[in-house]
């Protein structure tokens, strides 16, 4: 499976694309489902699965049934718990009840920031679900990024590098336009971060990168 095809599924789900560039094979649909679960975006991606059905691109029946059941479970949990994260108000209506909030360390945050994502990354909790939250937060800012750029924490070169890598990940996974980004994307950093959150980098690789690239963040974790 090419990860780029899975990222296209995310983009269909959030309305950035209408269809995939090619039909997925049965085993690829299974991999899509597994990654969506791993990244806490199974409900969001199910919207894409439904939209692709209209184009004749259908997941195998067993995968589709499991996915539908999980999406319905999410809707029920969110309704029963009445615990929608504040950031969900930024989501389009068809996605609001499908955001995974269980064990969400950002459930009480009304607006996701780069520092929130930076801390999640250092603790190895950053995933595509958090990236989608940030994507919708940025969509709400309408290009007003001056206060973001002047935040003291972002003056540190390591965190600024993280921010630029984050922009590349938003571009790669969700298809966000560079004109809507507060920082210029940095592909080299973004590729490492994406490999890490997709669980392709080892724990040792993660900590080596964090120690050499984000030393101030590591010091903060010790405090």
Structure report:
By secondary structure, this protein is an all-alpha fold. It is built from 12 helices and no strands. The protein has helices at residues 3-13, 26-38, 42-53, 61-81, 93-96, 114-122, 128-141, 146-150, 157-174, 187-197, 203-213, 215-222. The radius of gyration is 17 Å and the shape is globular. The protein starts with a helix and ends with a helix.
Question: Could you list some keywords that capture this structure?
Answer:
mainly alpha; 61% helix; 223 residues; single chain; disordered C terminus
Unreliable spans are 218-223
The largest pleated sheet is described as: none
* Number of separate helices: 12
Gyration radius, rounded: 17 Å
Average pLDDT, all residues = 86
Please give the number of β-strands. 0
Shape: globular
Give the helices and strands as they follow along the chain. HHHHHHHHHHHH
Strand content: under 5%
The rounded distance between the terminal residues' Cα atoms is: 42 Å
Class from helix and strand fractions? mainly alpha
Proportion of helical residues: 55-70%
């Amino acid at each position: 499976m090419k990860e780029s095809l899975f990222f296209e599924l995310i983009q269909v789900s959030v309305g950035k694309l209408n269809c995939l560039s090619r039909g997925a094979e049965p085993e690829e649909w299974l991999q899509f489902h597994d990654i969506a679960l791993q990244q806490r975006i199974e409900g969001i991606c199910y919207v894409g699965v439904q939209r692709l059905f209209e184009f004749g691109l259908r997941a195998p029946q067993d995968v589709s049934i499991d996915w539908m059941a999980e999406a319905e479970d999410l809707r029920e949990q969110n309704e029963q718990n009445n615990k929608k994260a504040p950031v969900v108000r930024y989501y389009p209506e068809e996605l609001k009840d499908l955001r995974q909030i269980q064990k969400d360390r950002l459930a009480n945050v009304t607006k996701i920031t780069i520092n929130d994502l930076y801390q999640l990354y250092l603790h190895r909790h950053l995933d595509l679900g958090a990236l989608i939250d940030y994507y919708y937060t940025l969509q709400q800012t309408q290009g007003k990024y001056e206060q973001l750029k002047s935040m003291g924490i972002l003056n540190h070169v390591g965190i600024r590098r993280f921010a630029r890598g984050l922009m590349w990940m938003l571009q790669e996974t969700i298809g966000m336009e560079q004109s809507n980004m507060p920082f210029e994307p940095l592909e080299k950093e973004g590729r490492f971060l994406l490999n890490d959150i997709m669980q392709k980098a080892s724990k040792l690789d993660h900590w080596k990168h964090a120690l050499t690239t984000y030393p101030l963040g590591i010091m903060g974790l010790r405090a």
